[in-house]
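Request: When convenient, would you put together a sequence paired with its C-alpha coordinates?
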Amino acid sequence: MAPSTGAVRPARSLVIFGLIVAALYALVFFTGDKSPTPKLGIDLQGGTRVTLTARTPDGSKPSQDSLRRAQEIIETRVNGLGVSGSEVVIDGDNLVITVPGDDSSQARTLGQTARLYIRPVQSSAVSSNAQAQAPKAETPAPAPAPQNRPFPAQEPGTPAPPTETPAPPADQGAATSDDQAAAEIAEAKKTRQSTDPAVQQQAMATLDCNASDPLQGNDDPALPLVACSTDGTTVYLLGPSIIDGQEIADASSAFNSQQSRNEVSLTFKSSGSTTWAQFTAANIGKQAAFTLDSKVVSAPVVQGATPAGSATSITGDFTSASAKELANTLKYGSLPLSFQASEAETVSATLGLASLQAGLIAGAIGLALVLLYCLIYYRMLGVLTALSLVLSGVMVYAIMVLLGRYIGFTLDLAGIAGLIIGIGMTADSFVVYFERIKDEIREGRSFRSAVPRGWARARRTILSGNAVSFIAAAVLYVLAVGQVRGFAFTLGLTTILDVVVVFLVTHPLVHLASKSDFWSKPSINGLGAVQQVARERKTAASARTSVGAQAKEA
Protein backbone atom coordinates (compact mmCIF):
# COMPACT_ATOMS: atom_id res chain seq x y z
CA MET A 1 0.00 0.00 0.00
CA ALA A 2 1.23 3.47 -0.82
CA PRO A 3 2.17 5.61 2.13
CA SER A 4 -0.02 8.42 3.27
CA THR A 5 0.67 11.74 1.61
CA GLY A 6 -0.62 13.90 4.43
CA ALA A 7 -2.61 17.08 3.98
CA VAL A 8 -2.33 18.66 0.53
CA ARG A 9 -2.68 22.43 0.16
CA PRO A 10 -2.69 23.04 -3.60
CA ALA A 11 -3.64 26.71 -3.28
CA ARG A 12 -0.61 27.40 -1.07
CA SER A 13 1.74 25.67 -3.51
CA LEU A 14 0.39 27.64 -6.46
CA VAL A 15 0.67 30.91 -4.51
CA ILE A 16 4.30 30.13 -3.62
CA PHE A 17 5.08 29.46 -7.28
CA GLY A 18 3.33 32.67 -8.31
CA LEU A 19 5.36 34.66 -5.77
CA ILE A 20 8.60 33.13 -7.07
CA VAL A 21 7.76 34.07 -10.65
CA ALA A 22 6.67 37.57 -9.60
CA ALA A 23 9.93 38.07 -7.67
CA LEU A 24 12.00 36.91 -10.65
CA TYR A 25 10.30 39.30 -13.08
CA ALA A 26 10.49 42.14 -10.55
CA LEU A 27 14.27 41.63 -10.60
CA VAL A 28 14.21 41.50 -14.41
CA PHE A 29 12.31 44.77 -14.90
CA PHE A 30 13.43 46.81 -11.89
CA THR A 31 17.11 45.98 -11.35
CA GLY A 32 20.29 46.27 -13.40
CA ASP A 33 19.87 47.51 -16.94
CA LYS A 34 16.16 46.48 -16.85
CA SER A 35 16.49 44.80 -20.23
CA PRO A 36 14.17 41.76 -20.52
CA THR A 37 16.41 39.94 -23.00
CA PRO A 38 18.90 37.19 -22.13
CA LYS A 39 22.58 37.57 -22.90
CA LEU A 40 23.31 35.66 -26.09
CA GLY A 41 26.47 33.72 -26.78
CA ILE A 42 28.86 34.45 -29.61
CA ASP A 43 27.35 31.73 -31.80
CA LEU A 44 24.01 33.56 -31.66
CA GLN A 45 25.10 37.19 -31.98
CA GLY A 46 28.27 36.76 -34.06
CA GLY A 47 31.86 37.64 -33.24
CA THR A 48 35.18 36.02 -32.37
CA ARG A 49 35.91 33.62 -29.54
CA VAL A 50 39.45 32.77 -28.44
CA THR A 51 40.13 30.04 -25.88
CA LEU A 52 43.45 30.23 -24.02
CA THR A 53 44.59 27.31 -21.86
CA ALA A 54 46.73 28.42 -18.90
CA ARG A 55 49.86 26.47 -17.98
CA THR A 56 52.33 27.00 -15.16
CA PRO A 57 56.09 26.42 -15.57
CA ASP A 58 56.01 23.36 -13.31
CA GLY A 59 52.85 21.94 -14.88
CA SER A 60 50.76 22.38 -11.74
CA LYS A 61 47.19 23.65 -11.74
CA PRO A 62 47.09 27.47 -11.99
CA SER A 63 45.58 29.26 -9.02
CA GLN A 64 42.29 31.11 -9.32
CA ASP A 65 44.01 34.31 -8.15
CA SER A 66 46.47 34.20 -11.05
CA LEU A 67 43.68 33.42 -13.50
CA ARG A 68 41.63 36.37 -12.23
CA ARG A 69 44.63 38.68 -12.57
CA ALA A 70 45.27 37.38 -16.08
CA GLN A 71 41.60 38.01 -16.81
CA GLU A 72 41.95 41.65 -15.72
CA ILE A 73 45.07 42.22 -17.82
CA ILE A 74 43.59 40.62 -20.93
CA GLU A 75 40.32 42.54 -20.41
CA THR A 76 42.39 45.73 -20.70
CA ARG A 77 43.78 44.48 -23.98
CA VAL A 78 40.36 43.44 -25.25
CA ASN A 79 38.97 46.87 -24.43
CA GLY A 80 41.91 48.33 -26.33
CA LEU A 81 40.38 46.93 -29.51
CA GLY A 82 37.82 49.72 -29.24
CA VAL A 83 34.71 47.52 -29.35
CA SER A 84 31.87 47.22 -26.87
CA GLY A 85 30.43 43.99 -25.55
CA SER A 86 33.78 42.26 -25.19
CA GLU A 87 34.32 39.91 -22.27
CA VAL A 88 36.93 37.61 -20.77
CA VAL A 89 35.55 34.67 -18.79
CA ILE A 90 37.38 32.15 -16.61
CA ASP A 91 36.38 28.65 -17.70
CA GLY A 92 38.18 26.10 -15.55
CA ASP A 93 41.89 26.47 -16.35
CA ASN A 94 41.06 28.46 -19.48
CA LEU A 95 40.36 32.05 -20.36
CA VAL A 96 37.62 32.42 -22.97
CA ILE A 97 37.81 35.74 -24.80
CA THR A 98 34.73 36.88 -26.69
CA VAL A 99 34.99 39.85 -29.03
CA PRO A 100 32.01 40.96 -31.17
CA GLY A 101 32.93 41.33 -34.82
CA ASP A 102 34.79 39.15 -37.28
CA ASP A 103 38.35 40.48 -37.02
CA SER A 104 40.05 37.37 -35.61
CA SER A 105 43.56 38.66 -36.38
CA GLN A 106 43.33 41.11 -33.48
CA ALA A 107 41.71 38.60 -31.14
CA ARG A 108 44.55 36.11 -31.70
CA THR A 109 47.10 38.51 -30.18
CA LEU A 110 45.23 38.90 -26.89
CA GLY A 111 46.86 35.94 -25.21
CA GLN A 112 50.34 37.43 -25.06
CA THR A 113 51.56 37.29 -21.47
CA ALA A 114 51.93 40.72 -19.88
CA ARG A 115 55.49 41.42 -18.75
CA LEU A 116 56.52 43.38 -15.69
CA TYR A 117 59.98 44.96 -15.26
CA ILE A 118 61.73 47.01 -12.59
CA ARG A 119 63.69 49.90 -14.08
CA PRO A 120 65.72 52.71 -12.50
CA VAL A 121 64.20 56.18 -12.88
CA GLN A 122 66.63 58.58 -14.55
CA SER A 123 64.28 61.57 -14.65
CA SER A 124 60.59 62.45 -14.56
CA ALA A 125 58.35 65.34 -15.53
CA VAL A 126 54.72 66.31 -15.20
CA SER A 127 52.73 65.21 -18.22
CA SER A 128 52.00 68.23 -20.39
CA ASN A 129 49.75 66.97 -23.14
CA ALA A 130 47.64 70.10 -23.27
CA GLN A 131 50.70 72.32 -23.01
CA ALA A 132 52.46 70.40 -25.76
CA GLN A 133 49.49 70.99 -28.05
CA ALA A 134 49.19 74.67 -27.14
CA PRO A 135 52.52 75.77 -28.70
CA LYS A 136 51.60 73.87 -31.84
CA ALA A 137 48.35 75.82 -32.02
CA GLU A 138 50.07 79.13 -31.26
CA THR A 139 52.98 78.69 -33.67
CA PRO A 140 50.93 79.11 -36.86
CA ALA A 141 48.91 81.92 -35.23
CA PRO A 142 51.73 84.52 -35.08
CA ALA A 143 52.85 83.71 -38.60
CA PRO A 144 49.77 84.96 -40.44
CA ALA A 145 49.25 87.85 -37.99
CA PRO A 146 52.10 90.12 -39.14
CA GLN A 147 51.72 89.11 -42.76
CA ASN A 148 48.99 91.47 -43.82
CA ARG A 149 50.55 91.75 -47.28
CA PRO A 150 49.00 89.71 -50.06
CA PHE A 151 52.32 88.32 -51.32
CA PRO A 152 53.45 86.54 -48.16
CA ALA A 153 49.90 85.37 -47.67
CA GLN A 154 50.47 83.11 -50.64
CA GLU A 155 53.11 81.18 -48.71
CA PRO A 156 50.59 79.80 -46.29
CA GLY A 157 48.60 79.17 -49.42
CA THR A 158 51.14 76.47 -50.19
CA PRO A 159 49.19 73.95 -48.09
CA ALA A 160 50.19 71.35 -50.60
CA PRO A 161 51.86 69.41 -47.77
CA PRO A 162 48.58 69.32 -45.78
CA THR A 163 46.77 68.01 -48.87
CA GLU A 164 49.46 65.43 -49.33
CA THR A 165 49.21 64.23 -45.72
CA PRO A 166 46.19 62.03 -46.50
CA ALA A 167 48.47 60.09 -48.88
CA PRO A 168 50.27 58.19 -46.10
CA PRO A 169 46.99 56.90 -44.64
CA ALA A 170 46.15 55.62 -48.11
CA ASP A 171 49.42 53.74 -48.23
CA GLN A 172 48.94 52.51 -44.70
CA GLY A 173 45.43 51.39 -45.54
CA ALA A 174 46.90 49.10 -48.16
CA ALA A 175 49.05 47.39 -45.56
CA THR A 176 47.73 44.72 -43.29
CA SER A 177 46.85 45.45 -39.66
CA ASP A 178 49.85 43.38 -38.54
CA ASP A 179 52.22 45.44 -40.70
CA GLN A 180 50.74 48.65 -39.37
CA ALA A 181 51.14 47.49 -35.78
CA ALA A 182 54.74 46.46 -36.43
CA ALA A 183 55.47 49.81 -38.04
CA GLU A 184 53.94 51.72 -35.12
CA ILE A 185 55.94 49.68 -32.60
CA ALA A 186 59.17 50.24 -34.53
CA GLU A 187 58.49 53.97 -34.77
CA ALA A 188 57.74 54.19 -31.04
CA LYS A 189 60.95 52.35 -30.20
CA LYS A 190 63.00 54.79 -32.28
CA THR A 191 61.96 57.67 -30.07
CA ARG A 192 60.91 56.23 -26.71
CA GLN A 193 63.68 53.63 -26.49
CA SER A 194 66.47 55.65 -28.06
CA THR A 195 69.86 55.87 -26.33
CA ASP A 196 70.32 59.44 -27.59
CA PRO A 197 69.66 61.90 -24.70
CA ALA A 198 68.31 64.53 -27.09
CA VAL A 199 65.81 62.09 -28.57
CA GLN A 200 64.83 60.97 -25.07
CA GLN A 201 64.09 64.53 -23.97
CA GLN A 202 62.10 65.13 -27.13
CA ALA A 203 60.10 61.97 -26.48
CA MET A 204 59.34 63.07 -22.92
CA ALA A 205 58.13 66.43 -24.15
CA THR A 206 55.88 65.05 -26.90
CA LEU A 207 54.55 61.83 -25.36
CA ASP A 208 50.75 61.91 -25.12
CA CYS A 209 49.74 59.88 -22.08
CA ASN A 210 46.07 59.98 -23.06
CA ALA A 211 46.60 58.34 -26.46
CA SER A 212 46.73 54.60 -27.08
CA ASP A 213 50.20 53.17 -26.61
CA PRO A 214 51.51 51.12 -29.58
CA LEU A 215 54.46 50.06 -27.43
CA GLN A 216 52.18 48.52 -24.80
CA GLY A 217 53.85 45.33 -23.61
CA ASN A 218 56.35 45.40 -26.50
CA ASP A 219 59.19 47.43 -25.02
CA ASP A 220 62.71 46.03 -25.06
CA PRO A 221 63.88 45.55 -21.43
CA ALA A 222 67.55 45.98 -22.47
CA LEU A 223 66.94 49.55 -23.68
CA PRO A 224 65.87 52.77 -21.93
CA LEU A 225 62.18 53.62 -21.96
CA VAL A 226 60.09 56.77 -21.91
CA ALA A 227 56.80 55.82 -20.25
CA CYS A 228 53.74 57.36 -18.61
CA SER A 229 52.33 56.60 -15.19
CA THR A 230 49.10 54.65 -15.11
CA ASP A 231 47.13 57.79 -14.20
CA GLY A 232 48.73 59.72 -17.08
CA THR A 233 50.03 62.56 -14.89
CA THR A 234 53.77 61.85 -15.04
CA VAL A 235 56.26 61.00 -17.77
CA TYR A 236 59.35 58.98 -16.78
CA LEU A 237 62.69 58.38 -18.42
CA LEU A 238 63.69 54.91 -17.30
CA GLY A 239 66.91 52.99 -17.61
CA PRO A 240 67.22 49.39 -18.83
CA SER A 241 65.46 46.76 -16.75
CA ILE A 242 67.30 45.43 -13.72
CA ILE A 243 64.77 42.79 -12.63
CA ASP A 244 62.17 40.85 -14.59
CA GLY A 245 58.75 40.53 -12.95
CA GLN A 246 59.21 36.78 -12.95
CA GLU A 247 61.70 37.31 -10.12
CA ILE A 248 58.96 38.58 -7.76
CA ALA A 249 58.08 35.67 -5.49
CA ASP A 250 55.22 37.26 -3.56
CA ALA A 251 53.56 40.58 -2.83
CA SER A 252 50.99 41.60 -0.23
CA SER A 253 49.42 44.75 1.18
CA ALA A 254 49.07 45.68 4.84
CA PHE A 255 48.43 48.68 7.08
CA ASN A 256 51.47 49.90 9.04
CA SER A 257 49.98 50.95 12.37
CA GLN A 258 53.23 52.60 13.53
CA GLN A 259 53.48 54.83 10.48
CA SER A 260 49.67 55.02 9.99
CA ARG A 261 49.88 54.21 6.30
CA ASN A 262 49.18 51.44 3.81
CA GLU A 263 52.21 49.65 2.43
CA VAL A 264 52.97 46.99 -0.14
CA SER A 265 55.48 44.32 0.82
CA LEU A 266 57.18 42.16 -1.79
CA THR A 267 59.83 39.46 -1.80
CA PHE A 268 62.06 38.33 -4.64
CA LYS A 269 63.43 34.98 -5.66
CA SER A 270 67.10 34.30 -4.96
CA SER A 271 68.64 35.91 -8.04
CA GLY A 272 66.20 38.83 -8.01
CA SER A 273 66.80 39.36 -4.30
CA THR A 274 70.55 39.67 -4.82
CA THR A 275 70.11 42.11 -7.69
CA TRP A 276 67.63 44.20 -5.68
CA ALA A 277 69.97 44.30 -2.66
CA GLN A 278 72.81 45.58 -4.84
CA PHE A 279 70.58 48.14 -6.55
CA THR A 280 69.08 49.57 -3.36
CA ALA A 281 72.49 49.85 -1.74
CA ALA A 282 73.80 51.87 -4.67
CA ASN A 283 70.71 54.01 -5.30
CA ILE A 284 69.48 55.29 -1.92
CA GLY A 285 67.29 58.34 -2.44
CA LYS A 286 66.57 57.48 -6.06
CA GLN A 287 63.44 56.03 -7.62
CA ALA A 288 62.79 52.56 -9.00
CA ALA A 289 59.87 52.14 -11.38
CA PHE A 290 57.68 49.06 -11.62
CA THR A 291 56.39 48.91 -15.21
CA LEU A 292 53.60 46.72 -16.49
CA ASP A 293 52.89 46.67 -20.22
CA SER A 294 55.10 49.77 -20.65
CA LYS A 295 53.19 51.76 -18.00
CA VAL A 296 54.68 52.84 -14.67
CA VAL A 297 52.54 51.23 -11.99
CA SER A 298 54.60 52.64 -9.10
CA ALA A 299 57.87 54.55 -8.74
CA PRO A 300 58.85 54.48 -5.03
CA VAL A 301 61.96 56.17 -3.63
CA VAL A 302 64.67 53.84 -2.29
CA GLN A 303 64.95 54.84 1.38
CA GLY A 304 67.57 52.32 2.40
CA ALA A 305 69.51 49.25 1.40
CA THR A 306 67.51 46.04 1.42
CA PRO A 307 69.46 42.94 2.52
CA ALA A 308 69.25 39.95 0.19
CA GLY A 309 66.38 37.65 1.09
CA SER A 310 64.38 40.21 3.04
CA ALA A 311 61.11 41.82 2.05
CA THR A 312 60.90 45.26 0.50
CA SER A 313 58.21 47.76 1.48
CA ILE A 314 56.74 50.17 -1.04
CA THR A 315 55.20 53.26 0.52
CA GLY A 316 53.15 56.01 -0.99
CA ASP A 317 49.79 57.70 -0.86
CA PHE A 318 47.92 54.39 -0.86
CA THR A 319 44.43 53.60 0.23
CA SER A 320 43.67 50.09 1.39
CA ALA A 321 42.11 49.27 -1.98
CA SER A 322 44.92 50.82 -4.04
CA ALA A 323 47.59 49.06 -1.97
CA LYS A 324 45.86 45.73 -2.49
CA GLU A 325 45.51 46.41 -6.20
CA LEU A 326 49.20 47.27 -6.51
CA ALA A 327 50.16 44.13 -4.60
CA ASN A 328 48.08 42.04 -6.96
CA THR A 329 49.65 43.80 -9.94
CA LEU A 330 53.16 43.12 -8.70
CA LYS A 331 52.30 39.56 -7.75
CA TYR A 332 50.50 38.59 -10.94
CA GLY A 333 51.46 41.29 -13.41
CA SER A 334 54.11 39.08 -14.95
CA LEU A 335 51.92 36.02 -14.99
CA PRO A 336 53.39 32.85 -13.44
CA LEU A 337 51.84 30.89 -16.30
CA SER A 338 51.75 30.86 -20.05
CA PHE A 339 49.01 30.17 -22.54
CA GLN A 340 48.75 27.59 -25.26
CA ALA A 341 48.65 28.87 -28.81
CA SER A 342 45.19 30.41 -29.15
CA GLU A 343 42.72 29.40 -31.80
CA ALA A 344 40.11 31.94 -32.84
CA GLU A 345 36.62 30.88 -33.86
CA THR A 346 34.68 33.40 -35.91
CA VAL A 347 30.90 33.36 -36.30
CA SER A 348 29.14 35.89 -38.49
CA ALA A 349 26.14 37.77 -37.15
CA THR A 350 24.01 36.41 -39.99
CA LEU A 351 24.94 32.83 -39.14
CA GLY A 352 24.32 33.52 -35.47
CA LEU A 353 20.84 34.87 -36.20
CA ALA A 354 20.06 31.87 -38.40
CA SER A 355 21.27 29.54 -35.65
CA LEU A 356 19.07 31.30 -33.09
CA GLN A 357 16.03 31.02 -35.36
CA ALA A 358 16.74 27.34 -36.00
CA GLY A 359 17.11 26.69 -32.27
CA LEU A 360 13.85 28.45 -31.47
CA ILE A 361 12.03 26.60 -34.24
CA ALA A 362 13.41 23.27 -33.00
CA GLY A 363 12.29 24.09 -29.46
CA ALA A 364 8.83 25.12 -30.63
CA ILE A 365 8.43 21.94 -32.67
CA GLY A 366 9.57 19.79 -29.75
CA LEU A 367 7.19 21.55 -27.37
CA ALA A 368 4.30 21.24 -29.83
CA LEU A 369 4.90 17.50 -30.30
CA VAL A 370 5.01 16.94 -26.54
CA LEU A 371 1.77 18.84 -26.06
CA LEU A 372 0.10 17.03 -28.95
CA TYR A 373 1.07 13.66 -27.48
CA CYS A 374 -0.25 14.63 -24.06
CA LEU A 375 -3.54 15.90 -25.48
CA ILE A 376 -4.09 12.73 -27.53
CA TYR A 377 -3.09 10.29 -24.81
CA TYR A 378 -4.25 12.07 -21.66
CA ARG A 379 -7.10 14.19 -23.04
CA MET A 380 -7.76 17.18 -20.81
CA LEU A 381 -4.97 16.19 -18.42
CA GLY A 382 -2.75 17.20 -21.31
CA VAL A 383 -4.00 20.76 -20.77
CA LEU A 384 -2.49 20.66 -17.28
CA THR A 385 0.74 19.45 -18.86
CA ALA A 386 0.69 22.35 -21.30
CA LEU A 387 0.04 24.86 -18.53
CA SER A 388 2.88 23.41 -16.44
CA LEU A 389 5.32 23.58 -19.39
CA VAL A 390 4.35 27.17 -20.17
CA LEU A 391 4.84 28.23 -16.55
CA SER A 392 8.17 26.38 -16.50
CA GLY A 393 9.25 28.25 -19.63
CA VAL A 394 8.24 31.57 -18.08
CA MET A 395 10.41 30.85 -15.04
CA VAL A 396 13.36 29.62 -17.14
CA TYR A 397 13.31 32.76 -19.28
CA ALA A 398 13.47 35.08 -16.28
CA ILE A 399 16.32 33.06 -14.77
CA MET A 400 18.27 33.20 -18.06
CA VAL A 401 17.93 36.99 -18.13
CA LEU A 402 19.08 37.36 -14.52
CA LEU A 403 22.00 34.94 -14.89
CA GLY A 404 23.24 36.86 -17.92
CA ARG A 405 22.91 40.16 -16.07
CA TYR A 406 24.59 39.25 -12.79
CA ILE A 407 27.05 36.44 -13.50
CA GLY A 408 27.63 36.96 -17.22
CA PHE A 409 26.00 33.68 -18.31
CA THR A 410 25.50 33.65 -22.08
CA LEU A 411 22.89 31.50 -23.77
CA ASP A 412 24.41 29.73 -26.76
CA LEU A 413 23.25 26.95 -29.06
CA ALA A 414 24.48 24.27 -26.66
CA GLY A 415 22.49 25.92 -23.87
CA ILE A 416 19.37 25.99 -26.02
CA ALA A 417 19.88 22.27 -26.67
CA GLY A 418 19.98 21.72 -22.91
CA LEU A 419 16.73 23.64 -22.51
CA ILE A 420 15.02 21.61 -25.24
CA ILE A 421 16.11 18.35 -23.62
CA GLY A 422 14.82 19.76 -20.33
CA ILE A 423 11.37 20.07 -21.93
CA GLY A 424 11.37 16.36 -22.61
CA MET A 425 12.54 15.57 -19.08
CA THR A 426 9.78 17.71 -17.60
CA ALA A 427 7.19 15.98 -19.75
CA ASP A 428 8.65 12.65 -18.65
CA SER A 429 7.88 13.55 -15.03
CA PHE A 430 4.27 14.23 -16.00
CA VAL A 431 4.06 10.85 -17.74
CA VAL A 432 5.39 9.07 -14.65
CA TYR A 433 2.83 10.84 -12.46
CA PHE A 434 -0.13 10.18 -14.76
CA GLU A 435 0.81 6.51 -15.23
CA ARG A 436 0.94 6.01 -11.47
CA ILE A 437 -2.55 7.48 -11.26
CA LYS A 438 -3.72 5.04 -13.94
CA ASP A 439 -2.15 2.15 -12.01
CA GLU A 440 -4.18 3.11 -8.95
CA ILE A 441 -7.36 3.36 -11.01
CA ARG A 442 -6.72 -0.10 -12.50
CA GLU A 443 -6.76 -1.39 -8.95
CA GLY A 444 -10.34 -0.16 -8.64
CA ARG A 445 -9.89 3.28 -7.03
CA SER A 446 -11.66 6.41 -8.14
CA PHE A 447 -9.88 9.34 -9.77
CA ARG A 448 -10.09 11.30 -6.51
CA SER A 449 -8.54 8.57 -4.37
CA ALA A 450 -6.02 7.56 -7.07
CA VAL A 451 -4.37 11.01 -7.24
CA PRO A 452 -2.83 11.16 -3.73
CA ARG A 453 -1.78 7.50 -3.85
CA GLY A 454 -0.36 7.84 -7.33
CA TRP A 455 1.56 10.96 -6.27
CA ALA A 456 3.07 9.15 -3.28
CA ARG A 457 4.48 6.51 -5.64
CA ALA A 458 5.41 8.85 -8.48
CA ARG A 459 7.30 11.50 -6.54
CA ARG A 460 10.00 9.06 -5.45
CA THR A 461 10.52 7.99 -9.06
CA ILE A 462 10.54 11.61 -10.21
CA LEU A 463 13.08 12.63 -7.58
CA SER A 464 15.29 9.63 -8.32
CA GLY A 465 15.24 10.23 -12.07
CA ASN A 466 15.95 13.94 -11.73
CA ALA A 467 18.73 13.26 -9.22
CA VAL A 468 20.48 10.99 -11.72
CA SER A 469 20.07 13.60 -14.48
CA PHE A 470 21.39 16.38 -12.23
CA ILE A 471 24.43 14.34 -11.19
CA ALA A 472 25.19 13.62 -14.84
CA ALA A 473 24.87 17.33 -15.70
CA ALA A 474 27.08 18.31 -12.75
CA VAL A 475 29.81 15.84 -13.73
CA LEU A 476 29.63 17.02 -17.34
CA TYR A 477 29.88 20.64 -16.21
CA VAL A 478 32.97 19.95 -14.09
CA LEU A 479 34.79 17.90 -16.71
CA ALA A 480 33.74 19.72 -19.87
CA VAL A 481 35.14 22.92 -21.40
CA GLY A 482 33.57 25.70 -23.43
CA GLN A 483 30.12 25.35 -24.94
CA VAL A 484 29.57 21.86 -23.52
CA ARG A 485 29.53 23.45 -20.07
CA GLY A 486 26.68 25.68 -21.24
CA PHE A 487 24.74 22.59 -22.25
CA ALA A 488 25.43 20.94 -18.88
CA PHE A 489 24.46 24.12 -17.00
CA THR A 490 21.08 24.56 -18.69
CA LEU A 491 20.39 20.82 -18.42
CA GLY A 492 21.06 20.89 -14.68
CA LEU A 493 19.01 24.08 -14.27
CA THR A 494 15.98 22.66 -16.09
CA THR A 495 16.30 19.47 -14.02
CA ILE A 496 15.96 21.50 -10.82
CA LEU A 497 13.10 23.53 -12.26
CA ASP A 498 11.38 20.31 -13.32
CA VAL A 499 11.13 19.29 -9.65
CA VAL A 500 9.90 22.78 -8.69
CA VAL A 501 7.19 22.80 -11.37
CA VAL A 502 5.99 19.25 -10.68
CA PHE A 503 5.75 19.85 -6.92
CA LEU A 504 4.38 23.41 -6.97
CA VAL A 505 2.26 23.40 -10.15
CA THR A 506 1.46 20.03 -11.72
CA HIS A 507 0.55 18.06 -8.60
CA PRO A 508 -1.56 20.88 -7.08
CA LEU A 509 -3.44 21.32 -10.39
CA VAL A 510 -4.10 17.58 -10.72
CA HIS A 511 -5.20 17.47 -7.07
CA LEU A 512 -7.68 20.28 -7.70
CA ALA A 513 -8.89 18.53 -10.87
CA SER A 514 -9.52 15.30 -8.93
CA LYS A 515 -11.97 17.15 -6.67
CA SER A 516 -13.88 18.63 -9.60
CA ASP A 517 -16.93 16.80 -10.92
CA PHE A 518 -16.19 18.08 -14.42
CA TRP A 519 -12.56 16.85 -14.49
CA SER A 520 -13.57 13.55 -12.90
CA LYS A 521 -15.64 12.58 -15.96
CA PRO A 522 -13.88 9.79 -17.91
CA SER A 523 -14.65 11.52 -21.21
CA ILE A 524 -12.78 14.58 -19.97
CA ASN A 525 -9.77 13.18 -18.16
CA GLY A 526 -9.20 10.34 -20.66
CA LEU A 527 -9.27 7.68 -17.96
CA GLY A 528 -12.44 5.94 -19.16
CA ALA A 529 -10.57 2.99 -20.71
CA VAL A 530 -8.57 2.48 -17.53
CA GLN A 531 -11.72 2.56 -15.42
CA GLN A 532 -13.28 0.02 -17.78
CA VAL A 533 -10.31 -2.29 -17.21
CA ALA A 534 -10.77 -1.82 -13.46
CA ARG A 535 -14.46 -2.80 -13.73
CA GLU A 536 -13.62 -5.85 -15.81
CA ARG A 537 -11.01 -6.92 -13.28
CA LYS A 538 -13.48 -6.39 -10.48
CA THR A 539 -16.13 -8.40 -12.32
CA ALA A 540 -13.65 -11.18 -13.03
CA ALA A 541 -12.54 -11.22 -9.42
CA SER A 542 -16.17 -11.39 -8.26
CA ALA A 543 -16.83 -14.23 -10.67
CA ARG A 544 -13.84 -16.16 -9.39
CA THR A 545 -14.99 -15.57 -5.83
CA SER A 546 -18.51 -16.86 -6.65
CA VAL A 547 -17.15 -19.94 -8.37
CA GLY A 548 -14.91 -20.65 -5.43
CA ALA A 549 -17.77 -20.27 -2.99
CA GLN A 550 -19.97 -22.61 -5.01
CA ALA A 551 -17.21 -25.18 -5.19
CA LYS A 552 -16.86 -25.15 -1.41
CA GLU A 553 -20.62 -25.59 -0.95
CA ALA A 554 -20.60 -28.51 -3.32
Notes: Residues 1-5, 132-175 have pLDDT under 50 and may be disordered. The two ends are 35 Å apart (CA to CA).
